[in-house]
Specification:
Elements (H helix, E strand, L loop, with lengths): L3 E5 L2 E6 L2 E2 L2 E2 L4 E7 L2 H21 L10 H6 L5 H14 L9 H11 L5 H22 L12 H11 L12 H10 L2 H13 L3 H5 L7 E2 L4 E4 L8 E4 L2 H8 L28 H11 L6 H16 L4 H8 L4 H7 L6 H20 L8
Length: about 375
């Protein structure tokens, strides 16, 4: 039977043999094409048939160089942190042809390289970089996306038990009470930074990069949150009390930066590390938990809008810069006082039933 694709789950696989003049010239295929599109699967079949028939007729082409993982890394424009992750991976996979790298191989590389780390680390430092490198090549070669299944909750629990750790400390998302106490002890500029992140969902790197003239429009009562992670800048209307505080901040340059107009920064910090010591000190002075920037700001915004105030999630997602509402819902919202809420709901139901039936819980009929 000639090669033909078939759908298995969400991914198209291939089965059959490559034939030449009606006779099979390969063993039986039964493997993934790594695509979720039928057209891509048929394209994979055609290319594989052409490759195998060419080898069958002409033998291996000595001028045809297989692209190895090391070749692919050299063609990938990695960010500094990502480049550091790719070093040990390349030491392991550098000479391996891209076509021979399977999702299973990538998943197994996580525990091999980082045996005492969490599955989150395996995903961040192995799976994601490998996937990005291969897809960068595939985009120009085959156009077929390379996908790797994430680590399951069962695998996560098993690894956490093995290393006797559950990973990073989980911090509560910011709230108005925490923010007001923080601002009582924080310098004005730092207090304004915390306020802006909480009411806009801005990341710390976005907030610290804001320019007092380019990202503030006092006349319209709007601020601009600089783009990040593939998103464009977004202009947001903010309450008058917030705008008044931001526009009252004196213009300042980050320490040791040249005094050029473009180098002005709304909060005066060069980057995310600038406010860290003062941030921790303000928390300690206020007698509140040290909540990191992201938890106090972006996580706090997501929790406040979706859980506490129950704002329409599409509105919250658009304002906060989430294109994927599932990501906002699953990552940036958390159950609060779950036991208290459930018990109160149960008692409300019980009271209603007792009223309707004339019966009471715990008493004999």
């Amino acid at each position: 039977m000639p090669l033909e694709p078939y759908l298995r789950g969400a991914v198209w696989h291939v089965r059959g043999r490559v034939e030449y003049n009606g006779a099979p010239i390969t063993t039986y295929y039964r493997n993934s094409t790594r695509t979720s599109e039928e057209a891509g699967a048929w394209d994979w079949c055609r290319k594989e048939e052409q490759r195998v028939i060419r080898i069958h007729l002409l033998g291996e082409d000595p001028e045809e160089k297989l692209i190895t993982f090391a070749d692919a890394v050299l063609q990938y424009d990695a960010k500094p942190k990502e480049a550091a992750y790719l070093v040990p991976i390349t030491e392991k996979l550098g000479s391996t042809p891209i076509r021979d790298i399977s999702p299973k191989l990538v998943r197994e590389l996580g525990p091999e390289l980082y045996p005492v780390c969490s599955t989150d680390t395996w995903t961040r430092q192995v799976v994601s970089p490998v996937r990005a490198v291969i897809n960068n090549i595939n985009d120009s070669e085959s156009g077929i996306a390379f996908r790797v299944r994430g680590y399951t909750q069962k695998e996560k629990v098993a690894q956490d038990r093995k290393r006797k750790s559950t990973g990073r400390k989980k911090y509560p998302p910011g709230n108005w009470e925490w923010l007001l106490k923080f601002r009582q002890k924080a310098p004005p500029r730092l207090g304004a930074l915390a306020l802006l992140m909480f009411i806009s969902g801005a990341r710390i790197t976005q907030a610290t990069s804001m320019h007092p003239r380019k990202h503030i429009n006092k006349a319209k009562g709007m601020i601009c949150i600089p783009g990040a992670k593939g998103h464009d800048d977004r202009w947001l209307r903010v309450p008058d009390v917030v705008m008044a505080e931001l526009t009252a901040l004196p213009e300042v340059y980050p320490r040791d930066w040249p005094r050029k107009p473009d180098n002005l920064r709304l909060f005066g910090y060069a980057g995310r590390g600038g406010p860290r010591k003062l941030w921790d000190k303000a928390c300690d002075d206020a007698g509140i938990e040290r909540i990191p920037f992201h938890s106090a700001g972006r996580h706090g915004f997501g929790q406040e809008m979706n859980v506490r105030q129950r704002v329409d999630e599409k509105a919250a997602g658009a304002f906060g810069g989430w294109s994927d509402l599932n990501l906002m819902r699953n990552t940036y919202t958390h159950a609060e006082d779950a036991q208290g809420k459930i018990n109160k709901a149960m008692l409300r139901g019980l009271h209603k039933a007792e009223t309707n039936t004339g019966l009471q819980l715990g008493k004999e009929p």
